């Protein structure tokens, strides 16, 4: 009877020793893919999901806290503003950015044995208790450029490690990973100047976002480094949408009739700007060269193809997750500001 009892317990002991790496090896996929399946992440092919679930069943890895959404001591919250698509008519492109950053975070978290839980939220302090109790989270990664200070202060008051992926929260001291917007603007302006452009405008995003404020700061610095003057009428502001890019371009042309180049706050604004320039009878790049931001997939399919600032969005997510792991594992309390290098994907629009 004792031997039978031991045999009955043995599979459970084995199951406790099975790791994500074991499952990944058995299913011939990456550890990050196993993590995505465990968390019901949407960007997994059905065939791959089936292989992983079969491996989990064969190996006996059945942690109910993960598969059924219960508490776990190694979970991390990935928070995205729930209204992000509603705020942007070009929601599919916003999702493109989020998807790559989230995928990078999933990869790094899985390597450190941390389980990601993605939530779309208003980032309101009133939601915080429910979010934290739902996952017993060890840390939080916030993705995006608009983060309410009250939400961050509430996280800090609870001693929860937090990293912002894609923006900063100044004047609050919070760990963050973001593109080097000063470098990006310098690269864009240097390229335009090399092409003989001297009158450069900016159609920027809303000043409520940290990223837009950084782009404006980088724009002014880039002009200075190229020994070009700056005047406020060189800038128009809007939202990250096609229509806003169109209207911002029309406004900018009314403010400055001498423009020979325009930089846009993101590629969707640049697409709207392309249409506005065409409607107004300008040739691109003959009369006005244009440059976008973030190098979305659409940049390769505009007419002409769009020059755009690029950075590794997947890597940004990975670095944010690695930094969070350091905060969780080592209790580091000195906030880091991590800048990701940028490059210029040069195409026919400039």
General description of the model:
- With about 350 residues, this protein is of the alpha/beta class.
- The chain has three domains: about 1-65, lambda repressor-like DNA-binding domains (434 Repressor (Amino-terminal Domain)), CATH 1.10.260.40; about 75-180 and about 315-340, Rossmann fold; about 180-310, Response regulator (Rossmann fold), CATH 3.40.50.2300.
- Helices cover about 50% and strands about 15% of the residues.
- It contains 14 helices and twelve strands.
- The protein has helices at about 1-15, 20-25, 30-40, 45-60, 65, 85, 90-110, 130-135, 150-155, 180-195, 210-225, 240-255, 265-280, 315-330, and strands at about 75-80, 115-120, 140-145, 160-165, 175-180, 200-205, 235, 260-265, 290-295, 305-310, 335-340, 345.
- The protein has a six-stranded parallel sheet with strand order 2-1-3-4-5-11, sandwiched between helices. It has a six-stranded mixed sheet with strand order 7-6-8-9-10-12, sandwiched between helices.
- Helix 9 (about 150-155) links the parallel strand 3 and strand 4.
- It is globular.
- The chain starts with a helix and ends in a 5-residue tail after the last strand.
- About 45% of the residues are buried.
Which descriptors apply to this entry?
alpha/beta; 434 Repressor (Amino-terminal Domain); Rossmann fold; 3 domains; six-stranded parallel β-sheet; 14 helices; 12 strands; disordered N terminus
Q: What is the string of SSEs from the N terminus onward?
A: HHHHHEHHEHEHEEHEHEHEHEEHEE
Strand count, sense and closure of the main sheet?
6 strands, parallel
**Overall CATH class of the largest domain:** Alpha Beta
Number of helices, where a helix is a run of at least 4 consecutive DSSP H or I residues? 14
Strand content: 15-25%
CATH A-level architecture of the largest domain? 3-Layer(aba) Sandwich
Radius of gyration: 24 Å
What's the number of structural domains?
3
Strand order of the largest sheet: 2-1-3-4-5-11
Mean of pLDDT: 84
Share in helix:
40-55%
Question: Which superfamily, in CATH terms, is the homologous superfamily of the largest domain?
Answer: Response regulator
Distance between the termini: 80 Å
The low-pLDDT segments are 1-16, 64-71, 85-92
The class by helix and strand makeup works out as: alpha/beta
Shape: globular
- Let me know the number of strands: 12
């Amino acid at each position: 009877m004792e031997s039978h009892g031991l045999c009955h317990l043995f599979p459970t002991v084995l199951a406790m020793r099975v790791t994500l790496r074991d499952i990944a090896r058995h299913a011939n996929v990456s550890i990050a893919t196993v993590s995505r399946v465990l968390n019901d992440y949407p960007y997994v092919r059905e065939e791959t999901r089936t292989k992983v679930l079969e491996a989990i069943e064969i190996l006996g890895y059945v942690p109910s806290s993960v598969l059924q959404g219960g508490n776990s001591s190694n979970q991390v919250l990935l928070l995205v503003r729930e209204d992000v698509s509603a705020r942007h008519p070009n929601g599919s492109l916003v999702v493109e950015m989020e998807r790559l950053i989230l995928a990078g975070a999933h990869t790094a978290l899985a390597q450190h044995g941390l389980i990601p839980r993605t939530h779309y939220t208003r980032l309101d302090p009133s939601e915080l208790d429910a979010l934290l109790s739902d996952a017993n989270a060890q840390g939080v990664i916030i993705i995006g450029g608009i983060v309410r200070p009250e939400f961050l202060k509430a996280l800090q008051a609870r001693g929860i490690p937090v990293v912002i992926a894609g923006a900063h929260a100044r004047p609050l001291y919070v760990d963050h990973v973001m593109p080097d917007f000063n470098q990006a603007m310098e690269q864009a302006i240097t390229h335009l100047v090399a092409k003989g452009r001297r009158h450069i405008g900016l159609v920027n995003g809303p000043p409520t976002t940290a990223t837009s404020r950084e782009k404006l700061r980088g724009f002014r610095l880039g002009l200075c480094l190229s020994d070009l003057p700056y005047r406020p009428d060189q800038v128009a502001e809007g939202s990250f949408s096609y229509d806003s890019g169109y209207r911002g371009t029309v406004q900018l042309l009314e403010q400055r009739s001498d423009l020979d180049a325009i930089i846009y706050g993101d590629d969707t604004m640049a697409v709207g700007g392309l249409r506005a320039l065409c409607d107004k009878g300008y040739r691109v790049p003959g009369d006005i060269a244009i440059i976008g931001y973030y190098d979305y997939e659409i940049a390769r399919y505009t007419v002409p193809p769009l020059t755009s600032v690029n950075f590794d969005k997947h890597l940004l997510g990975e670095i944010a997750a690695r930094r969070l792991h350091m905060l969780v594992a080592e209790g580091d309390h000195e906030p880091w500001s991590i800048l990701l290098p940028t490059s210029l994907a040069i195409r026919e629009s400039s």
